[in-house]
Amino acid sequence: MIDEEELLQQLKSEKHKQEAFKTLLSLYKERLYWHIRNIVKSHDDADDVLQNTFIKVFKNIDSFKGESKLFSWMYRIATNEAITFINQNAKRLKTTSEEVQMLALNNLESDVYFEGSDIQLKLQKAIATLPEKQQLVFNMKYFQELKYSDMSEILETSEGALKASYHIAVKKIEAFLSED
């Protein structure tokens, strides 16, 4: 397995950039897809946002300074692209980003790529009731099992604040799931 430093050097080399980018795709495509999918909900939308994410990574790799891990930098791009996508949809539909997410959730039941049970659907609805930052933190910790140190780099927030956000999110989700 290639290490991140070596991969980065190859990505910044015109001679090796194409091949290194294919390696980058194979290493991170699935993880980034699920991160994005947890935010935008729809498979097709997640594919579009993932494509935009990798285009940005490819175009901007030369300006990556290495102040964080390459993985963290790409996650930050993916997160920003997903949020931008939701906000653009909200603007286009003349509604709020929260309503766009609820609409996406309602469509999740008919999404042929969603294989979740009723409880998973209810969990997604509970997550959608959280403020944006808590949603991100919960998804990254619960679904991607990211360490707080990695999340801190990605979201540019202290680990303590992330732990508090996650704790609050879990309490709100538990309350939502215990209703009915």
Keywords:
single chain; mainly alpha; Arc Repressor Mutant, subunit A; 9 helices; transcription; RNA_pol_sigma_r2; 2 domains; Rna Polymerase Sigma Factor, Chain: A; 180 residues
The count of helical stretches stands at 9
Major beta-sheet overview: none
Which parts are unreliable, with pLDDT below 50 for 5 consecutive residues or more?
none
Supply the CATH superfamily name of the largest domain: RNA polymerase sigma factor, region 2, helix turn helix motif
Q: Structural class, judged by helices and strands?
A: mainly alpha
Family: Belongs to the sigma-70 factor family. ECF subfamily.
Organism: Mariniflexile aquimaris
Protein name: RNA polymerase sigma factor
Domain RNA polymerase sigma-70 region: 26-91
Write the layout of secondary structure elements.
Elements (H helix, E strand, L loop, with lengths): L3 H8 L5 H24 L2 H18 L9 H23 L4 H12 L9 H11 L3 H12 L4 H8 L3 H20 L2
